[in-house]
Amino acid sequence: MSLAGKKILIGVCGGIAAYKIPLLVRLLKKNKAEVRVVMTASAIEFVSPLTLSVLSESKVLYEFQDEKHQWNNHVELGLWADVFLVAPATAKTISAMAHGYADNLLLTTYLSARCPVFVAPAMDLDMYSHLSTKKNLEKLAQFGNHIIESTEGELASGLVGKGRMEEPEKIFLSLQKFFENKERLKGKKILITAGPTHEKIDPVRFFGNHSTGKMGYAIAKVAADNGAEVKLISGPVHLKLEHKNIEIISVESALQMYDEVERNFDSCDVAIMTAAVADYRPEQVAAQKIKKEDELLNLKLIKNPDILKEMGKRKKHQLLIGFALETQNAVENAQKKLTKKNADLIVLNSLENQGAGFAHATNQVDFVTPEGVQHFDLKLKSEVAEDIINFIIENM
Ligand code: PMT
Prior knowledge:
Layout: E1 7-12, H1 21-30, E2 34-39, H2 49-56, H3 74-80, E3 83-89, H4 91-99, H5 105-112, E4 117-121, H6 125-129, H7 131-142, E5 146-147, E6 151-154, E7 160-164, H8 168-181, E8 189-194, E9 199-202, E10 205-207, H9 214-225, E11 229-234, E12 246-250, H10 254-265, E13 270-273, E14 280-282, E15 301-303, H11 307-314, E16 319-326, H12 330-340, E17 345-350, E18 362-363, E19 365-369, E20 372-375, E21 379-380, H13 381-395
Parallel strand pairs: 1-2, 1-3, 3-4, 4-5, 8-11, 8-13, 11-12, 13-16, 16-17
Antiparallel strand pairs: 6-7, 9-10, 14-15, 17-19, 18-21, 19-20
The protein binds ligand PMT.
Ligand PMT binds next to helix 9, helix 11 and strand 16.
């Protein structure tokens, strides 16, 4: 796909990988993109603004004012771009972006930008694996930024490990894919449930489960990046996600989740139920904290509605996708769920597989459809989400 008419702003930070940015600018220009560059003061020690200016055919900015004391307008830059790519993104700039600092032109541009932002980190392996860097990158992802993960290999320090900036060709492909995908689900409404439900016992206690919401939030992000209008009905989780195409509706219990799904189901085109919904809830919620007076405490539980099954009965044009979390006879149980709940796809994950299910960044799934079973290898939840979105596009 040509990038003709696409406006790409590159923010270059002071890391050795900055020497690869001229190659990236060249690639983008060869593919007809318009490119502008903003740099930090330390970046110009690594790569000359003149080189980047010649290649991008535009003035490179790195100070708040130019030689004539005219303001370099970061607001205009941020509004101009279709995409802002920060590469290489150093630990310092990542931290500053995560905390909202605005003491150089690149950072003020980041804060002003309304377009999607891509971040390609590059640093030494210990800096990359440091908890503060990890947390800052997580934060940037939660703000809705796209992280182009560093790769493993030989680093400038001579050490070998993760921290190398992704190669310019791969960064180029990520940007190209972003523009290609952006419209695939335009005009489609996708309803997603995520996370656990909490079923109240008394004012201080509930029962729940280990779901973190990672799987559902990953699907929401990929769906939104593909242009869908997403309603994410989320149980209590610690995740945050900001995206102009995503509306998050927070709920606590299975009954609340059911109400929200019911309210939004008829108008959606696709519903994806990743939530780990409690099958039962206490029949009575104690008005006061239950005191530990007796040796035995009996709680009477009653059944919650099966949201997926109810929507299976009600569906008309919708594509209905459920998950199955199994601990034994996985495929057989998933096939039963497919039929019983009238779903078009059951995404099966099993707690028997390492790295799959609750809380991991990864998942290993099988797609169970009336046509058969398709196996996928263990991969990042964001990649599982891409497979699900591809399924939707092929089957809608
Ligand atoms: O959130 P993470 O930490 O990333 O973990 C992801 C996950 C393990 C929660 C997710 O991948 C997953 O498997 N979700 C479904 C968990 C589950 O409850 O599975 P189940 O086999 O009990 O339910 C089958 C399907 O029916 C699910 O789509 C579920 O959302 C739905 N269901 C279940 C019960 C109920 N009362 N209402 C429902 O809609």
